[in-house]
Write a structure and sequence with these properties.
The complex is a heterotrimer of chains A (about 850), B (about 350) and C (about 325). In chain A, about 50% of the residues lie in helices and about 15% in strands. By secondary structure, chain B is α/β, with parallel strands linked by helices. The chains are: A alpha/beta (about 850), B alpha/beta (about 350), C mainly alpha (about 325).
Chain lengths: ~850, ~350, ~325
């Protein structure tokens, strides 16, 4: 038909002894859509990840346009035109959607290689518009719906004119209209000669869209067929490796009274609205809908994770008070969550403790857990659920997905719930375990539990349910009897209908206000203005003069410079609490050198290099040995101080040469030199963080390490870079302070690490990484200096100063947390 | 169940081993455990005398100078002098270190305590074991030590600083105090005595800030505090900087601000740290004592006490090179404070 | 079998302790003077007590930097109430413990309700509580506590004769051991401990497993404040003085003991016994080095290196254990 674009042959891959791929093949031609199907765990994702350079194959050959390729990372693959849009893409939540789209594919850069944000945003808007979408690309990615994120990702991938484009479950969360837009775009790409690999569980889409279909099973490529040879049943039977028995595994259980009644339940964020239904003892109620229909959100609402705003739930006629999951469980509700790894398992803990966690108080006398009762329970779970494990002390993370799920199931069965909500209980579970879990569900129903089964697998819902309620866009769209109504009718009811979700449009004023609230710098300026204004009014003589203002800036200088380095490290997801000691050590070495007659500029260079070396040692050690940087630098805190004392041999260093002192002491145009330094450094860090690719990558790493890996960012490189930056700044401060004050004592720099971190935090840096601003950090340091200055001028007692400073940090972070929360609920 | 017991049984076994080890060691240690309160003087006679000298902290010029004197005395008298102290002016570290010095059976321990009360318990314990205790630089509670080697009476220091101020800035000077840490006992005593003396002799002088400014043993911070104070109190005429760190720090601030002719600065510091400021006229006079002599006298007193030559009620003892010292009760006073000026500052190298 | 035993972190720590002990006893005169060692141990009591709730906090992937300041603040409250307001000493002690609990509750409620990382919260309160201590004491040291109070730090539980030399066991050491046993019991035997580990291992799953996450966080920090208050009594009694600048850096000592003891900084795994061994290792090391006459400035380097070495070793062991499965 046409030329071969990408060919993968005999690909093998093992993960820690588990074979993921065995001699897998994939063959993509130009100008075609190749469907890739298989059950969960068949190896599709692994194959895609190998093809797009996320990790290497153990063996096998990748040919791109006839040439052998080895991709070291995803960026190399992307450079060769092999791109992927991942399912529910892992995003950098604190970066704008425009940046998420273009970070790995080219932010628009202007003169000097600096990022032009206006053009970047325009570009992103254009790409989104090309796909027939329209939304504000400047908002944080974290506040966007999954569908829009997916569309933005696709738009961005398309923009780089790839040769081969992998789309992994792109439609899972899309509305009908969005799917139409997507398909139109795919057709356009196909016409342009792009090879598209389309992965989906929705076989209807596969049949509609694809020219050929490759079917995988158990890590191997089973066969590739052209569309004409395909039927839905054929695909399914090849996928599962046997003829599908459509016979229901559901046993008939006498259905009793209403156990749970839901009336008009509505979510705060509108993810579900006016949900009304009931479920009876012994009944299995299928809750069917696509991802994004509000199924999980509804379940979480009932369970007390996110409180609903309206409506009521009763269990056995008693109104359910929903505030926390604990209350829900106490009233007879149980919920097996959808995402097992994130929401259910305690990976490194034993099977026993994973199983007993929901019923511990019941197994205890007072607060003391009865060993015997717990062992009985664990053994019961292992036997009844047929868990395959060596013993009950085996960490649950080492079990297979199906066995993990059985333990989690056992955890909830042990609570003897009146109502059990199962959210995708068989996702990522092999066929055998699936049947066993179905059997367990029936067992539970037989004992009179009312069961709500949430699933996006229609066959499962059809086979297991007594009744099916369909959800679409957060509303109940129908109730069906699976024995009488056909699959088509149920599926049709679940398909999202409305073309457009109702989006509350914000007025420009509201949007402006929302953005202003986000800007910590503005808040700080207001705060500084208020305090400054008050001081101007009360102490006009001593406060309101240029000299005093310069003094404040001067006093803020050294903490501010250190804080810029600390901020960079925190942005990248690390921390360094040894900078004060490090500064002392470097400062002592430089001062010793200069008193020994080494020229001042060389001493300065020495300090910078030494600072970088120490800091790189911190960063490198935490990377290589994989210890948390807080531990490494906690040790560094005492080690550097000790080494410094050794270097100084118990003496103070005084009378530094004038050439050295001139580095910090003195003024240009009446303004102290250190003021220039702090402004220049803050400005440079601002440019680095805001306008260079490197800076954005640092933030990206701090946002999400896994997403950063997906776009091929090197954690090692970026981490070492920020530590090197911080080290150079530490070295500089190690020269500045002694040069300014003309002496080095053994306590040089003591406590400065906390001042630096405090300035960064007050300046709006997220201590967990991913968000930070150089301007905010500078303002944070200035605010602390201003506070000290004001307290001094107001002749406030020296004794109480610390209270104000501690209170200020607490106030700043609390306001920040509240603002973030308000924003979160407004979105 | 066994599994649970395992780590704990190891801990138990460990404790048993520790005890066993100690009992074995106890046997070996017993023979030289002859020191008892009664026989200390006699037993000390035969073997080499071991003196431990502890400053408030190590690594600053002031105490380095004292170390020199102490070591010199050790050589002169033929006794072992060990000099060590905490890296920060922290009394808890001093207490812990003294505890090990008791175990190491020093014949005398000389300490400059960071807190007179907190140090006293461990000093009492040492005395019970027959160890002579000399405090120097700062006193502990009087009943916790044998002798206190006082560099100069607190009154002497307070009065001469006040006199320098009155001489430089006039009897109606407005002044402030800069101290090290707000909890430092020495400085607080001096400030109290200065206040008493001020009220009696210079009633026209005014302390502008009731609480002293804190500089935290950090010269840079002292500079900052002094500079800020110049702004806070536009009519400021005098500054007392009461530590050897605060005085050069404050001098630096005055020099930077060019305020040396407006504001009189005095206080206590080592001559080396003040040399440049005295020579360039920023500071005219300041006070200290002969620090190496203080260390020297301390060790002398310790040795004399161990040998039994110095007992309660004595009025003199052999003080080697120092001729000015006198004994008042259980206090040995080095002499009057030294006033440093342009003329004599070059004579001292500490 | 040997490999399996070596996989137990506590065993490795214990071996390290034995090596230290043997090394010191062979090279350092007076090291084996048991009475001195026990007498010295009273200085470990305050950091040791703090290390126990700190084990729990680190097990939830949190941290508390404010405990040193809490100890200072409680000591000052105790002293001021006793000296300036003539409270009976028992009442002043109770007030100190209560204030510690309240301070812990501040940490706990801010970090659990506003969901601010505990590192930031306690960084702020570390300064704040220290400020309170300075403010209400006016930086004045308070001493002259009654003899009954002195018993806490200086009393002896009992004494016995070892080869003719009396050996006194300090009551404070007993209090530390009681804290350790209670801590170990709660962590290993009760659902509070189980919930703590679960919260540290996977906070989201803990919420979905109906663990009262907010109450638990609040409770642990409050308990830490409570223990801080109790530790302040011993601290004040041992040194005989309440000072606003007391207990500086005590939080770091406690954290170091916890980390050396093998509790994972990212949460989910903890051992109170390990913490105890960590305390003993640091304590013996400091004692031995002081006794050998090693200058104090080098002791901190050695302890720092020890911290890194054990952290690297722990991580290496954890990874090896992960791979072998």
């Amino acid at each position: 038909m046409s030329e071969t674009l990408l060919q993968l042959t005999a690909i093998d891959k093992c993960f820690g002894g588990v074979t993921a791929l065995r001699e897998a093949r994939l063959h993509v031609r130009a100008g075609e859509v190749l469907g890739l199907v298989g059950e969960n765990g068949a190896g599709k994702s692994t194959l895609i990840n190998i093809a797009t350079g996320l990790f290497p194959a153990d063996s096998g050959v990748i040919l791109l346009e006839g040439k052998t390729m080895t991709f070291a990372n995803t960026q190399q693959a992307a450079a060769q035109g092999v791109m992927v849009v991942h399912q529910e893409a892992d995003l950098f939540a604190q970066l704008s959607i425009a940046e998420n789209m273009l970070l790995s594919r080219g932010l628009v850069r202007g003169p000097g290689g600096l990022i032009n944000w206006r053009k970047t945003n325009t570009e992103a808007e254009r790409l989104v518009a090309d796909l027939g979408e329209q939304f504000d690309v400047n908002q944080d990615a974290g506040s966007l719906t999954v569908a829009r994120r997916t569309m933005a990702e696709i738009a961005a991938a398309v923009s780089t004119s790839p040769k081969v484009l992998f789309l992994d479950e792109p439609t899972a969360s899309l509305t009908v209209k969005e799917i139409e837009n997507l398909f139109r775009q795919i057709a356009r790409l196909k016409a342009a000669g792009v090879g598209i690999v389309y992965v989906s569980h929705r076989l209807e889409e596969i049949l509609e869209l694809c020219d050929r279909v490759t079917i995988m099973r158990d890590g191997a490529t089973i066969e590739t067929r052209i569309k004409a040879d395909l039927t839905m049943d054929g695909i399914v039977s090849t996928m599962v490796g046997r003829e599908m028995t459509s016979s229901s595994v559901k046993r008939d259980v006498p259905i009793g009274d209403v156990r749970m009644a839901v009336d008009g339940l509505t979510a705060k964020d509108g993810s579900y609205t006016d949900i009304t239904f009931d479920v009876r003892a012994g009944e299995i109620l299928g809750l069917y809908g696509f991802v994004g229909a509000g199924r999980s959100e509804f379940a979480q609402g009932v369970f007390g994770i996110e409180k609903p705003v309206a409506g009521s739930v009763t269990i056995d006629g008693q109104p359910l008070k929903i505030k926390t999951p604990r209350q829900a469980v106490a009233q007879g509700l149980a919920y097996l969550p959808e995402d097992r790894l994130v929401q259910a398992v305690f990976r490194e803990h034993a099977l026993r403790t994973n199983g007993s966690v929901t019923v511990l108080p019941r197994l205890s006398t007072g607060t003391v857990i009865s060993n015997r009762k717990e062992h009985v329970l664990a053994r019961k779970i292992m036997e009844e659920m047929a868990v395959k494990a060596a013993n009950m002390e085996q960490p649950i993370g080492t079990l297979s997905g199906g066995n993990q799920q059985k333990v989690i199931f056992g955890r909830w069965a042990a609570t003897e719930p009146k109502v059990l909500i199962l959210d995708e209980p068989t996702r990522g579970v092999d066929v055998g375990a699936k049947a066993e879990i179905h059997k367990l569900i029936c067992d539970l129903a037989e004992r009179g539990t009312a069961i709500i089964l949430i699933s996006s697998e229609l066959p499962e819902v059809m086979a297991m349910s007594d009744r099916v309620v369909t959800l679409s866009e957060g509303r109940v769209t129908g109730t069906f009897n699976p024995r009488e109504d056909g699959e088509e009718a149920i599926a049709a009811a679940a398909v999202p209908r409305s073309a457009e979700k109702v989006v509350v449009a914000l007025s420009p004023l509201q949007r402006g206000l929302a953005r202003a609230l986000q800007m910590r710098e503005l808040g700080l300026i207001v705060f500084i203005g208020l305090l400054g204004g008050y001081m101007c009014l009360t102490n006009p003589d001593s406060f309101a003069n240029t000299n005093n203002f310069l003094d404040i800036l001067k006093n803020a200088a050294i903490p501010a410079i250190l804080a810029q380095g600390a901020m960079l490290i925190i942005c990248a997801g690390g921390i360094d609490i040894s900078v004060g000691s490090m500064m002392g050590f470097v400062g002592a070495c430089a001062a010793l050198a200069v008193t020994a007659g080494v020229p001042a500029p060389i001493c300065l260079a020495l300090a910078l290099v030494l600072g970088m070396a120490c800091s790189l040692l911190n960063g490198g050690l935490s990377l290589v040995a994989r210890i948390h940087p807080i531990i490494v630098t906690l040790a560094g805190l005492s080690i550097y101080r000790g080494v410094m004392r050794y270097a100084m041999d118990g003496k103070e260093i005084r009378h530094l040469p004038d050439a050295y002192r001139a580095i910090a002491d003195g003024a240009w145009l009446g303004v102290p030199k250190v003021c220039y330094y702090v402004i220049a450094i803050s400005f440079a860090v601002h440019i680095l963080l805001r306008y260079t690719l490197l800076g954005r990558q640092i933030l990206a790493l701090g946002n999400s390490e896994s997403a950063a890996r997906l776009i091929g960012l090197s954690k090692t490189k970026l981490t070492l870079f920020v530590f090197a930056c911080s080290g150079a700044l530490v070295g500089f401060c190690g020269v500045l302070k002694p040069a300014y004050y003309s002496s080095v004592q053994a306590n040089l720099g003591e406590g400065l690490e906390l001042q630096a971190i405090a300035a960064a935090v007050i300046g709006g840096t997220n201590i967990l990484g991913g968000r930070g601003s150089a301007l905010g950090t500078l303002l944070g340091a200035v605010l602390v200096a201003l506070l000290y200055n004001s307290l001094l001028l107001l002749e406030a007692s020296t004794y109480w100063q610390n209270i104000f400073v501690g209170g200020l940090i607490l106030l700043a972070v609390s306001v920040d947390a509240i603002v973030q929360r308000l924003r979160g609920s407004a979105a | 169940m066994m599994k649970k017991l395992f780590p704990w049984s190891i801990a138990g076994l460990g404790l048993a081993m520790v005890l066993a080890g100690c009992s074995g060691g106890g046997n070996g240690a017993a023979p030289d455990d002859g020191a008892s309160p009664a026989g200390d003087a006699g037993s000390a006679e035969g073997k080499e005398i071991k003196i431990g000298v502890m400053p408030k902290l190590v690594g600053i010029d002031y105490f380095n100078a004292a170390e020199k004197g102490a070591k010199a005395a050790g050589e002169a008298l033929g006794v072992t002098v060990d000099y060590d102290g905490p890296v920060e002016a922290d009394v808890t570290k001093q207490v812990q270190l003294i505890e090990t010095w008791i175990t190491r059976k020093y014949d005398a321990i000389c300490v400059a305590p960071n807190d007179p009360d907190a140090i006293s318990d461990v000093l009492n314990k040492a005395r019970k074991r027959g160890i002579k205790i000399i405090t120097w630089d700062t006193d502990s509670q009087p009943d916790a030590r044998d002798f206190f080697v006082n560099q100069a009476t607190s009154e002497g220091i307070a009065h001469s600083m006040m006199d320098i101020m009155a001489e430089g800035a006039g009897p109606e000077a407005k002044f402030i105090n800069i101290t090290g840490t707000l909890t430092a006992a020495n400085q607080n005593t001096w400030m109290d005595l200065m206040e008493t003396y001020r009220a009696e002799t210079y009633p026209g002088m005014v302390n502008l800030s009731e609480t002293p400014k804190e500089s935290g043993e950090d010269q840079a911070r002292a500079t900052q505090v002094a500079a800020d104070s110049l702004k806070t109190y536009p009519d400021l005429q005098g500054i007392f900087a009461l530590t050897s760190v605060a005085l050069p720090g404050a001098a630096e601030a005055l020099r930077k601000a060019g305020a040396a002719d407006k504001v009189v600065l005095t206080g206590l510091a080592t001559p080396k740290s003040m040399k440049e400021y005295v020579l360039d006229g920023t500071v005219d006079k300041f006070v200290l004592w002969n620090v190496p002599d203080l260390g020297y006298l301390t060790v002398h007193a310790a040795v004399a006490a161990v040998k039994g030559e110095l007992t309660e009620g004595a009025t003199t003892f052999n003080t080697g090179r120092i001729t000015t010292s006198r004994i008042e009760g259980s206090e040995i006073i080095l002499g009057d404070p030294l006033v440093f000026t342009k003329d004599n500052i070059e004579e001292f190298d500490y | 079998m040997i490999k399996k035993i070596l996989d137990k972190r506590e065993v490795v720590l214990f071996i390290v302790l034995c090596i230290l002990f043997t090394g010191f006893s062979m090279n350092t005169e007076y090291f084996l003077d048991l009475d001195s060692l026990l007498s010295y141990s009273r200085y470990w009591v305050a950091p040791g007590m703090l290390a126990i709730p700190m084990t729990f906090i680190i097990a939830t992937a949190g941290i508390d930097l404010s405990v040193g300041s809490i100890v200072a603040m409680c000591g000052i409250i105790l002293g001021v109430l006793y000296r300036d307001y003539q409270w009976p000493i028992a009442g002043a002690c109770a007030a100190a413990v209560l204030s510690g609990t309240a301070a812990g509750a501040v940490n706990g409620s801010v970090s659990s309700l506003l969901r601010i990382p505990p590192l930031v919260v306690t960084l702020a309160t570390m300064t704040l509580f220290r400020g309170v201590a300075f403010g209400i004491s006016k930086a004045d040291a308070i001493s002259n506590f009654p003899p009954a109070f002195k018993y806490l730090g200086h009393g002896d539980l009992f004494s016995f004769n070892l080869n003719g030399n009396p050996v006194f066991v300090p009551s404070a050491l007993g209090a530390l051991l009681v804290t350790v046993v209670i801590g170990a019991f709660i962590l290993r035997k009760t659902w509070i401990g189980r919930y703590t580990l679960a919260l540290g291992e996977n906070p989201v799953a803990a919420l979905y497993a109906a663990i009262p996450v907010h109450w638990l966080t609040f409770g642990i920090y409050t308990a830490c404040g409570f223990v801080g208050g109790v530790a302040s009594l011993f601290y004040t009694s041992v040194y005989g003085t309440a000072r606003a600048d007391a207990a500086m850096g005590l939080e770091l000592e406690a954290i170091a003991a916890v980390v050396i003891g093998g509790t994972r900084i990212s949460g989910g795994q903890a051992s109170v016994l390990g913490t105890l061994l960590g305390l003993l290792i640091i304590g013996i090391l400091k004692y031995g080095l002081d006794l050998s006459g090693v200058r104090s400035q080098y002791v901190v380097i050695i302890v720092g290196v020890l911290l890194i070495v054990t952290a690297v070793f722990n991580e290496w062991m954890a990874r090896r254990a992960g791979e072998s499965k």
